[in-house]
Design brief:
Helix 1 runs parallel beside helix 2, helix 3 packs parallel to helix 4 and helix 4 runs parallel beside helix 5. Helices cover 37% and strands 21% of the residues. Strands 1, 2, 3, 4, 5, 15, 16 and 17 form an 8-stranded mixed β-sheet that branches. The chain has a 4-stranded parallel β-sheet with strand order 11-12-13-14. It has 2 domains: 91 residues, Urease, subunit C, domain 1; 288 residues, Alpha-Beta Barrel (TIM Barrel). It is an alpha/beta fold and 389 residues long. The chain contains 11 helices and 17 strands. The protein is globular. Strand 7, helix 2 and strand 8 form a beta-alpha-beta unit. Bound molecules: zinc ion (ZN). The site of zinc ion has 5 residues, from loops.
Length: 389
């Protein structure tokens, strides 16, 4: 039994326009995209008559933490709940993304590799949820950023072992930290201070790529961002204190920027404990300038929310898309940042409407190419060829 989406205006994830077409999903994949009116549904097929509504790829959030709940101090909640309750909570957070049209999330840090367990549970069909690409524990230096979910490694040999441990645990990508951060703990890290060295990051990225997985590096300060880019990391997370030489190197190497604008505004606005609020204010001031520099240099930008962090519930993609639009991305580039471009950045087979792609689709009223935020209030969500309740 196939699912037929008939008479919609299809945006494929890449192009500048929508075109009228019928989309057929058989099983978990898209099996045809043909001229409107050309499909003759078979007996028992599920037919949705869309009458000019827009069909587009399900959205991707390139940076979430499923174990965190978006409260004022989510790391503390995890510590109180412990592992088993945290798994249940993470499953519910994943489901919340799917209900609102986020059909893929990239999880960049979870205690006890919980997000890998959630990814496996969803893949096995035990629970419904979005596609989850999970890093599990992060590969960081001893005492590095967010140590509570860190797989702490020092020296090139140790980070290679760290990468292998995460891949063995089932990680779909590697998350590392090239600098300190804003939220996580009250003392012991600063956004400007670099963490794993360039040599360590090079060993890490080389091993990850050898194992066929991408690397996302948490990097705010200038020296750490430069280390990560030159080490061959695929995606720079946050990337606040950028310089002209760094964005030129990113452009040349195809390094992607996932700026996560909304979370720092949220924390600077008072959503987190006091020590983080002050640090976030400095980040917000520098962030806009860095993003402008990256966009002018032609660095690919993808959408990530850090959902689960203080003030950022699951899902929070609407707020990040609004920030990207405000920062000057064209509407189509805002949509690409949360579909095809994000999928490419993380090496995920998703984010496009074309034959053979996963049948993860949204039906939206109105024209999201005029207003990309419309994509965050879908009329209907399809995941793996099935309509989500
Ligand atoms: Zn994060």
């Amino acid at each position: 039994m196939a699912l037929v989406l008939r008479g919609g205006l299809v945006w494929d994830g890449d192009s500048e326009q929508r075109r009228r077409a019928d989309v057929v999903c058989d099983g978990a994949r898209i099996t045809s995209v043909t001229a409107a009116g050309s499909v003759r549904p078979g007996e028992g097929d599920d037919v949705l008559d869309l009458d000019g509504a827009t069909v587009l790829p399900g959205l991707l959030d390139g940076h979430v933490h499923l174990v965190w709940d978006g409260s004022r101090d989510p790391a503390d909640v995890v510590e109180r709940d412990g592992e088993q309750l945290t798994v249940l909570r993470a499953v519910e957070h994943a489901r919340a993304h799917l209900r609102q049209g986020v059909t893929t999330v990239v999880d960049l840090g979870s205690n006890w590799d919980v997000a890998i367990t959630v990814a496996r549970g969803i893949d096995a069909g035990y629970v419904a949820g979005p596609r989850v690409l999970a890093a599990g524990r992060t590969v960081v230096m001893t005492g590095g950023h967010d140590p509570f979910w860190g797989n702490m490694c020092d020296g090139a040999d140790a980070v290679v072992r760290g990468v292998r441990e995460q891949v063995y645990a089932g990680a779909g990508l590697i998350k590392t930290a090239a600098t300190g951060g804003v939220y996580g703990r009250a003392v012991g890290e600063e956004v400007g201070a670099s963490e794993l060295s360039r040599d360590e990051l090079t060993a890490l990225a080389t091993e990850a790529h050898r194992r066929g997985v991408k690397v996302a590096a948490h990097a705010l300060g200038e020296e750490g961002i430069r280390n990560a880019v030159l080490a061959g990391v695929d995606v720079i997370e946050h990337g606040v204190f950028l310089t002209e030489d760094i964005v030129a190197a990113m452009r040349e190497r195809g390094t992607v920027l996932c700026p996560t604008l909304a979370v720092y505004r949220s924390i600077a606005g008072g959503a987190a404990p006091g020590y983080a609020v002050e640090k976030a204010a400095e980040v917000v001031r520098a962030h806009q300038r860095g993003l402008r520099m990256a966009l002018d240099a032609g660095v690919p930008v993808v959408a990530g929310t850090d959902a689960g962090s203080p003030g950022m519930p699951h899902p929070s993609l609407r707020r990040e898309l609004a920030c990207l639009r405000e920062a000057g991305l064209a509407p189509v580039d805002v949509l690409r940042a949360a579909t095809s471009r994000a999928a490419d950045a993380f090496g995920i087979d998703a984010g496009r409407v074309r034959v053979g792609a996963p049948a993860d689709l949204l039906v939206v009223d109105g024209d999201p190419l005029a207003d990309p935020l419309l994509a965050t209030t879908p009329r209907c969500v399809v995941r793996g060829g099935a309509i989500v309740d």
